[in-house]
Structure formats: structure tokens, C-alpha cells
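Practice problem. Given the sequence and the SMILES for magnesium ion, write out the predicted structure.
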Amino acid sequence: MSARAVLDLADVVKDYASEAGSFRALHGVSLTVADGELMAIMGPSGSGKSTLMNIIGCLDTPTEGTYRFEGTDTATLNERALARLRNAGIGFVFQQFNLLPRLSALGNVALPLVYSGLGRSDREAKAQALLTQVGLADKPKSRPSQLSGGQQQRVAVARALANDPKLLLADEPTGALDTRTGAEVLGLFQALNRDRGVTVVIVTHDPEVARATDRVVRIQDGRVFYDGPPTEAALYGHGDALPSPSGEGPGVGRSADDATAPPPGRASRVSRPSPEGEGRP
Ligand SMILES: Nc1ncnc2c1ncn2[C@@H]1O[C@H](COP(=O)(O)OP(=O)(O)OP(=O)(O)O)[C@@H](O)[C@H]1O
Ligand SMILES: [Mg+2]
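Answer key:
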């Protein structure tokens, strides 16, 4: 697997302004995800997972620190360039599907293609092919309300794939699904990663979802305190194998300084961008 970084966050801080003052949701997160990875982000409610996903998805910007997408510092991109990156480079899947209720399954999947330059019939043909890929070849005309939860989430996955994104971001994609349906949607992510090389980042509370990935990043109080393979301790967030959030334990307290070194005793999949990846436009 190429170690080229799709995304690279360095010391990312996120502050939210509120009436009570400023709230720091991320306290200097450093994270590199290589091309073709399948990884899970876990952590308690309120730990900063969605905040991190919003930054990775260029829906929000860091207060401090840098975020590079395929080598480009996103702080150097204007709104238009960011919108292009979001539309063409990144696919999003959310817990609540976020489908447009008045559009058919086909219409929902074809929607992101409006800016692709394809004509209507080509857009519909592509949308139909995507529906087939997610196992919904026979449902193009169904409205979201006529589909099961799992089917709606598959439509959402097909929509996220419409522009052939490099990176698929999913924030609790199985959170609203029963176990079996959730497993089906997870299987879809695994297949996309394996067969099409899509880089997949999944936020999940479910250890069984995270177990199916190659790498687990655990966040607590806005800090990364585990980054490594999906061991039992990592999946369930307990046990002596996990370091304290301050980073003093046996595992990972990743700072900019130790980011290149794998944690002791672990085959870390973390990789820094290669020099040629670093400077690419
Ligand atoms: N727009 C906002 N303004 C102020 N504070 C916010 C905002 N969004 C999130 N927060 C705070 O930032 C912290 C992290 O929130 P975030 O949504 O990232 O958590 P999470 O890990 O995704 O939680 P969950 O598992 O419940 O989805 C929380 O304490 C939350 O209250
Ligand atoms: Mg969240």
C-alpha cells in the first residue's frame, strides 16, 4: 500500500465561541491517513469526533494548526476551491441519511452530479449504476420514505460515491440501523475500500464496526490517546493496554515530535506524507 497521505492534520485546535466564552473541542490533534486506509474514530460522546470529521471534510476550519488534503494546505484554498474539494474529493455519509424526501432514490444519487458537466441522461445512468453497486438496482423510483433504514443508508452511500471521491467520511453510519442492516452497510464500506481503493474514515460507537477496520483512533476530551490496530482494549476503551489521556501510558501520546515513531509494541499504520506528497498542488 502506498504511504501517500490523503489527509494530514498537524496540531489542530478547534475552539467554539459561545455565550459562556470559548470552548476548546480539539486540543492539538495530529493525524495522518494514508491512501487506501480503512479506519475508525471512536470515543465518548462530546469527545470531538464530529468536530474532527467536520474539519477533515472541509465543512469547518481549524482554529489553530494545519490541515493538508492530498498535500495542499486547506487554509490556502478559497471558498470556491473548498467547495470543489468537498464536492469532488470527499463523500459524506451521516447517521440520519440526510436524503431529500421529495426526490427518488435515483434523484438523490444523481444530485451531486449536477455540477459534474454530465448531461441528464448520463447523470441518471451513472446514478443507476451506483444504485446497482449498493444493491438497490430495483429501487430507483422509490422515495426515501418508501425504503427501509438500511436501504436509505445505501442510497446515501451511493450518493456519496457519485463523484468518485478519494475519501469517504461516515459519521455513525450504522447508528440508526439494527445490527444486521448495520453489518450490511459496513460490508459496503469494506468492499469499496478493498475493491476501489477508497479511503474510508468511520466514526462509530460500535466496537464491532471498528473491529472490521485496520486502524482505530480513540479521542477523549479533544485529544488522540490511542492510534493503532483494533485490539480489544482499543475497541472497548478500557484495560491497562490503553495509555492515560495525558499520553503517559504504554501506548500513544502523539505529538508532532513522536508522530513518526510507531508506538512501542504496536504495528502502527500511521505514516507521514512522503516528500513528494508534501509539496503537491
Ligand atoms: N457549534 C458548537 N458550538 C459550541 N460547542 C460545540 C459546537 N459543536 C460541538 N460543540 C462542543 O464540542 C464538543 C465536541 O462535540 P462533538 O460534536 O465533536 O462530539 P462527538 O464526539 O461527535 O459526540 P457524539 O458522540 O455525541 O456525536 C462537545 O462538548 C460539544 O458540546
Ligand atoms: Mg458526533
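Check your answer against the key. Confidence is low (pLDDT under 50) at residues 245-281.
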